[in-house]
Each structure stands twice: as C-alpha cells, then as structure tokens.
Amino acid sequence: MAHQSALIAEDIEAYLEAHQNKSLLRFITCGSVDDGKSTLIGRLLYDSKMIFEDQMAALEADSKRVGTQGGAIDFALLVDGLAAEREQGITIDVAYRFFSTDKRKFIVADTPGHEQYTRNMVTGASTADAAVILIDARKGVLTQTRRHSYLVSLLGIRNVVLAVNKMDLVGWDQATFDAIVADYRAFAEKIGLSVFTPIPISGLGGDNIAVRSEHTPWFDGPILMDWLESVEVEDSLQAQPFRMPVQWVNRPNLDFRGFSGQLASGVVKPGDRVKVLPSGRESRVARIVTLPGDLDRAVAGQSVTITLADEVDVSRGDVLVAADSPSAVAGQFEATLVWMDDEPLPPGRSYLLKIGARLVGASVTEIKHRVNVNTLEHTAAKRLELNEIAHVNISLDQAIPFEAYADNRDLGGFILIDRISNRTVGAGLLNFALRRADNIHWQHTDVSKASRAALKSQRGRVIWLTGLSGAGKSTIANLVEKRLHALGRHTYLLDGDNVRHGLNKDLGFTEEDRVENIRRVAEVAKLMVDAGLIVLTAFISPFRAERQLAREILNEGEFVEVFVDTPLAVAESRDVKGLYKKARSGQLKNFTGIDSPYEAPEAAELVIDTTKVDPVAAAEQIVAWLEGDEISYEI
Asked: Once rounded to an integer, what is the mean pLDDT over residues 186-214?
C-alpha cells in the first residue's frame, strides 16, 4: 500500500495525532442502475491510496475473471463483494467503505440503483452528511435519479454533488453536460435541492475525481475530491437545546447509577437542570462520566454517562432534555413513510415503532396521500406497496418525546417492525404531532375493572375463536356461552356475521377492511372485559398480526386464543352458507382459504381438532379449560 502521508513513515505518532483530529464526512453515492457508483468508490479508494498490495493483486485477478472492463481493472469489484453482485454486475446491498486523505476522513456508502432495493438506499442515506448523485451522461435524468434525489431531500441531506459520469463515452461534450444539469435543476428545485454542485467525471478513467481532467477545459468548478475535502457540514446540533436518548442504565455497583447515551443535540454541563421525558421528572446533572475521566461539558455527538443529583426513575428509551426547553411529547403524528416490505401496508394493522432506543406499538391510521416521485403528484391510496412513499397519520399506544425530523434526526426518524416476523417493514420521518391528541384526555372513573368483575364473581376474559369459514366457530361459541350462562357467568358473544350488520356494516372484505374489522372488534371486546364480562368472539380473523394486536391491548391472561382447527377440504365440504362455491367460481373475491391466506396460530392456548370432536365436546373442552384456569372469584 502506498503511503498516503509521508508522516506515516517519518513520525507515526504525529500522523496518528493528526489523523485523530481530522473531521469525518459521511456520504453516499446514489442514482440509477449502471451509473457507475461502485466504480466511482473504487476509484476514490485507489486514488487515495487505500488499497493494499494483496488487495490490488486480487482486484487484478478478479477483473480478468468476472470484471466488466475486458480484463482491465474493474474498480467496482472493490465494493461489490457479494457473489450475486459480481455475477450480475449490479449493487444489491449497501457497502460501507472507509478512506482518508491528508485533510479529512470519509465513510462512503455505495447504495443500489435498482428500484427493488430502494430500502437499502434509504438505510445508507439515513446517516449521511452529503450525497453524490450519479448520472450516466448517455442516459440523462432517469426515474431512479429522481427517486433517489427525492429521498436525499426527504432525509435532509443538503450537501449534494451531481456527478455526470461516463463523459468519455459522449466525447466530453459540454452541451450534453449542460443539458443534463439544466434538466436536473428543473426537478431539483421542486424538491428543495436548489443548491448542488455539478461535476463532469469519468469514474473509470479518474477524470475530475482526484485530478483535474485535461478533457474538460470548459469546466472551472471543483473536482470531486476537492469538494469532498472542503464541503462544510453544518454542525447546528450544538446550538440546539440539549437532548440525549438513554441507551443504557449503567449500574456497575450499588453506589453508581448513570444513564448512558449519545448527545443528539446541544451542550450539557454539571449543574444543568434537566428533565426526563416522557415522565416529566426534573433533576440536576451531577457528573458527566467517560472512561478517561469526568468532563466539564459534553456536546452533540459525544457518548457519555450522566449521573443525576436526585433519585429519578429513568429507563432505556427515555430522553434527557434541557429543563427550560424540553422536547414535545405526543402519541399521534403526521409522518412521511417509505414502505420497505414485499407485503403491502394495510392501514390499521399494528406494528412496532422503534425511535432511538424506545419501542412502542403503532398503527398507520390513515394514508393521506402517496407521492409520485417522478411528477411529485399526490395521489390517493388505500395501501402502500413496496418502495412507495406516502404522507400518513400514525397512532402510538403511548406518548413519546420527539422532535420533527427536519430539526433532529435522532428524535424524528423511526422504523416500523412487523410484530410477528420482526422484519423492518418501513422507515419514516415524524413531521409534527396531530392537534387532536391535545384535545383527548383520559377521564378518571371511580369504579374499577376489578370492582366490576368482583360484583359478577368472575374474571373478565376474551375467548377468541379463530379458524376457517365452516370450521364451526359460531356453533361452538354459542354452546360455550350457553354452558357458561347455566353456570351463572356473565357473558357476551360477538359473532363475525352479526357485527357486520351494525358496528362494521361499512366494511368490505379487502385486506384493509378485514384488518379494520378485527381492530374494532378487539377494542369492543376490551371494553366488555373492562365491564367484567366473559366475551366470546367467533371470527375467521385470518392474520396473526391482528390477533396479536387483540392480545396485546388486553392485560396478561385476559386473551385466550382458541384455534378451531379444521382442514380446508372438510370446511369446504360443509359450506353451509355456499361461500366456498361462490369463491371457487370467482363470484366471491378475497375469500380465506381460496384466494386469501389463513395464518394459523402458532401458540394458541387451546387447539380444537374438529375432525376428532363434535361441537358439544369442543364446547365442554373450552369450558373445562376456563374453569381450570379459575375464571371465578371467591365470593
């Protein structure tokens, strides 16, 4: 590896000290497919002398074997490390690379150009300070150029280079370069990227990357490396009020209790008054602890442990803020959401929302509009498909401290996680809290759930029967209620067909409407449990996520899932209502088991195999389980 600095050989300690004090720039390369992003990064690594001799030898061998440059060095292979990437000649995953020059350190993320990997691009851009947007000079501004530029603007990146690549393939024609810049500027101004730096380059040849090209005497702007070394990353976070999300409660022994995290903004000193959100408790900073020793002050970007003067309850996910200028706390938001999952987003489905170290339940209550990234047109949508972007309303199951993403990435950026599979399904930005949340408050009532249940000498429960149409859920639920009624229990039966005559008569059978159907039933069942009733529900409820939601909005032990297990062939042979026949003939769409899936429970409290027991025996099995689980109070 060639020395990038003479100090490495002359005075290693001086070099290390100088290296430690260099500023760090995080940037991404993005754009459409085959615009040369990986090649550009490989060239940057090569020109900054960050390639070891053995790496160079491997690169030369790989270039001859799988390269795309006819045996010449293929710099893209330095970044595209996955076998699939090399086979297809495309970038699939985000690749991070470190390099440095005498002036600055860099972490660059190479992000995929294909639309199907937009989620990977968002991941790479989420921590970037700058973006290099590549355009193939032969193709001009393409759909993915616009998509990635929109996302760059959306994620708050304001330092942007427009690198018009492969200029050698258009004869270094200035008119071509100027036309592309003009076309891009017209779009960029619409999305808030009115300031950007255009540079004509050749990633393969290295023109205008680390050395000014003799082929562009008509270009007098900065070359790419000079721009990367000199661009000023606005550090406005220190000027903002103090914010520190708590990552860890540090308790090494009985005599020490500190709260560890990275300052998201502001400055903090011992003696400062701070507030813990969302609880609102106040205290004073006693110490700022780090491994080398205590600090007199800490600033945005530093990771520290803070101790407080008072015994205040602080947990992971809480946020320490300046007492005189605290963050807002809310539970309902308008947000911008990028959907990242192959399964569409149906409004109303419950997910986990992770913001900083805090994990809360969340659902998208409304898709306000979808954004067409080509035209910037706002269009109506009932669901979001993979890689679509929309403005949505989100409701959380608890209030959280937050900042608008435009003001603070750490307190305004979030991801959505599927409750069942733990997949990350979406990434979003909080824009503002909904005012409606300020007008809704819990009203205290003196009669409690326990008092209502004790009056009935029973524990409130939801007995949730789920299974295919024709499995016998309604029949079994009816028999269970009759038996419980005979035992003196106070019950109510919510049947799938019956609630659609009133409460849910406005809902159809699309996936979105089915999600909403179960959400409403779960909320009604929760109110009935609060009244002390034993509630029986008989619904197909085909999706695990909605059944999990119903379980989670109740207290531990109040939700009893009963899987009425009937094979599809058996259920279809019964077909009491003729629904399977209609579904098979195409008259009935989205019918569970035919053209819509049923997700069987994985850990139901009870499984009733209707091929082995009749409805009466099934009902007795449920009642026996409940009696054994002590559904009554001692009078």
From this structure: 90
User: CB neighbours of 384 closer than 8 A, spacing ≥ 6?
Assistant: 337, 339, 344, 345, 367, 370, 390
316 in the same domain as 383: no
SS (H, E, C) 361-381: EEEEEEEEEEECCCCCCEECC
Summarised one tens digit per residue, pLDDT across range 403-443 is 999 888 899 999 999 988 888 899 999 999 987 656 666 67
H helices of 342-442, in order, are 409-412
User: Would you say residue 287 lies in a domain?
Assistant: yes
Least confident of 1-10, 398-407, 549-558, 566-575: 1-10
403: left (phi over 0), alpha (psi -120 to 50) or beta: beta
Averaged pLDDT, 200-214: 89
**CB-based contact 159:131 (threshold 8 Å):** yes
Residues 221 and 173 both lie in one domain: yes
Beta carbons of 401 and 411 less than 8 angstroms apart:
yes
Higher per-residue confidence, 377 vs 113:
377
Cα separation of 512 and 516, whole Å? Answer: 6
Q: What integer best gives the mean pLDDT of the chain? A: 84
- 34 with 166, same domain: the answer is yes
280: in domain: yes
Residue among 595, 193, 189, 143 at smallest CA distance from 387: 143
End-to-end CA distance of the chain: 83
Claim to verify: residue 412 and residue 483 sit in the same structural domain: no
- Residue 452's SS3 state is helix
Residue 209, Cβ neighbours under 10 Å: how many? Answer: 24
Q: Which of 18-27, 340-349, 436-445, 524-533 has the highest mean pLDDT?
A: 524-533
pTM summary value:
0.74
Main-chain dihedrals φ then ψ at residue 409, nearest 5 degrees: -65, -40
Residue 422 located in a structural domain: yes
- Read off the tokens for 403: 């900042």
Q: Residue 610 belongs to what domain range?
A: 452-628
d(CA 326, CA 403): 10
Structural tokens at position 135 = 């355009």
Q: What does the angle CA 428 – CA 157 – CA 49 come to, to the nearest 5 degrees? A: 120
Cα–Cα distance between 133 and 37 in angstroms, integer? 9
Q: What is the CATH number of the domain that holds 360?
A: 2.40.30.10
Where do we find the tokens 């409690």? 448
Q: Quick one: pLDDT at residue 112?
A: 67
Shared-domain flag, residues 217 and 75:
yes
Compute φ and ψ for 86, nearest 5 degrees.
-70, -35
- Alpha-carbon span 427 to 422, nearest angstrom: 14
Q: For position 543, which CATH number holds?
A: 3.40.50.300
Split into its structural domains, the chain has a count of: 4
Q: Would you please indicate which residues are annotated as catalytic (active-site) residues?
A: 541
179, 209, 230 - which closes a domain = 230
Residue 46 is predicted with a pLDDT of: 72
Q: Pick left, alpha or beta for residue 370 (phi over 0 → left; psi -120 to 50 → alpha; otherwise beta).
A: beta
Does residue 635 belong to any structural domain of this protein?
no
pLDDT score of 113 more than 80: no
Going from the C-alpha of 200 to that of each of 132, 164, 214, the distances in angstroms are: 12, 5, 12
